[in-house]
Design a protein that fits this description.
The protein is mostly helical. It folds into 2 domains: 69 residues; 39 residues. Helices cover 78% and strands 0% of the residues. It is built from 4 helices and no strands. The protein is elongated.
């Protein structure tokens, strides 16, 4: 099937604009966005703090596992687990230090450059969130 409408005697199809690109719609939405923005920013900040705290707790738990491995004579394996704990701790510090906009930009870049990794991280994050929610009941 062809999209060339000129051969059928019809004018060519021009691309339509997104409804949100229409200035009156933008003007109507802008006050709502302005009113809601502080609440959203507050929620995002709280979420960022919880993520950073959760990653810090995970790093501590991983270090505990490494200490137990080391005590049980598995020092080479314990070294790898300590390295993993250090990596998780650095993620926690990165989340804590970066702004929300920077984190969103990093996320967009990750999704564009490595979509499979992004999906894997989303699944892992969903699993962690589900565990946290269930443990809070």
């Amino acid at each position: 099937m062809t999209t060339d409408t000129t051969s059928a005697g019809m004018p060519p199809i021009t691309p339509s604009h997104d409804a949100l690109d229409i200035p009156p719609v933008q003007a109507a939405v802008a006050p709502v966005v302005t009113a809601v923005a502080p609440a959203v920013q507050s929620l995002v900040g709280e979420g960022k703090a919880q993520i950073s705290s959760g990653l810090g707790g995970l790093a501590e738990a991983v270090r505990d596992v490494a200490t137990k491995l080391e005590g049980n004579g598995a020092a080479p394996l314990a070294r790898y687990v300590y390295d993993a704990a250090d990596t998780v701790e650095s993620w926690s510090q990165t989340v804590e230090q970066k702004s929300v906009d920077d984190l969103l930009g990093d996320t967009r870049t990750l999704v564009r450059t490595s979509p499979a990794v992004a999906v894997g991280l989303a699944v892992a994050a969903g699993f962690v969130v589900a565990r946290v929610v269930r443990s809070g009941r």
